[in-house]
Amino acid sequence: MLLPRHPRGSKLTERELLAQWTASPRGQALLNLESKELQRLLPDVFGRHVLQIGSWLGGTQLLSHAETLHRAVLGTVQGEGVGAVIEPGRLPLPEKSVDAVILPHTLEFNDSPHQVLREAARVLNDRGRLFLFGFSPWSLWALRRRLGGARNFATGARLYGAGRVSDWLQLLDFEIADLRRFGLGFPYLSPRSAGHPWSLANLLLPFTESYLLVARKRVLPVNLLGRTQRAQIRSLVGVAVPAAQRQGLDGGSESGS
To answer: Domain Methyltransferase type spans what residues (predicted)?
Structure first.
């Protein structure tokens, strides 16, 4: 079945290839991996709104573990579970209105990845968290794709390394909370974070197929400055005595003489 073209979006043939890859055993296995990663993290998101920006595998499956009052998929093409078709670089949402945003490979299918990140930063509130999935351009799978060996995946996807995306996020005042790497092929490593105890396997982490970046808004502390108090004059010797008291003391000394 052909997916309808986004009003400003990707090529129809590429979306058709992506739909075929989604239904493949490899696509379903990747969806399960990504869903398990979010299963650990989404229950810790408190608030009202969690949004997935971009169409990806499984419809609303990535959102299934969110415990907020509202969750929705704003997709780039019509599909199962898509609440609205939008342009990721121009979100129809007010500023600071969302508690968490999920970008499932959204940058890789958009011509303006920087603008997508800017819009995500704009709509996230001060406690907001960002969950971004990406494919590593250094994996063996990506190499096969460049050589034409992975024909069942959308050819229009552009892959960005986790380090590059982290730099973009830090420029937008995000703090990188975690970087998880995982994959289906070589190297056969279980999902692990950047802070995982070091071993020789860590040398192979950049070559894993996929990664998950977890970032949160960096909020600068606000110092409430109180009313400035006037400086008090301090006596050089002893304790300063008010003028009225000095007059009383002077008068008392004269009457006693």
So the answer is: 90-132
**∠ CA 80-165-153 to the nearest 5 degrees?**
45
Tell me how long the chain is.
257
With a CB cutoff of 8 Å and minimum separation 6, the contacts of 28 are: 22, 57
> 49-88: per-residue pLDDT in tens?
999 999 888 789 999 999 999 999 999 888 888 999 999 9
Are the CB atoms for 194 and 215 separated by under 8 Å?
no
To which H or E segment does residue 131 belong? strand 124-135
End-to-end CA distance of the chain: give it in Å, rounded.
116
CA 107/CA 4 separation, integer angstroms: 20
Sheet holding 70-75, edge to edge: 82-85, 70-75, 49-53, 98-104, 124-135, 210-217, 174-182, 192-193
Of 151 and 142, which is predicted with more confidence?
A: 142
Predicted TM-score (pTM) of this structure: 0.77
Q: Where are the domains of the chain?
A: 12-217
Q: Cβ–Cβ contacts within 10 Å for residue 22, how many?
A: 18
List of residues 6+ apart from 75 with CB closer than 8 A: 52, 54, 55, 82, 83, 84, 85, 86
Per-residue pLDDT tens digits for 227-237: 545 445 444 44
Q: What is the pLDDT at residue 223?
A: 53
φ/ψ (deg, to 5) at 133: -95, 140
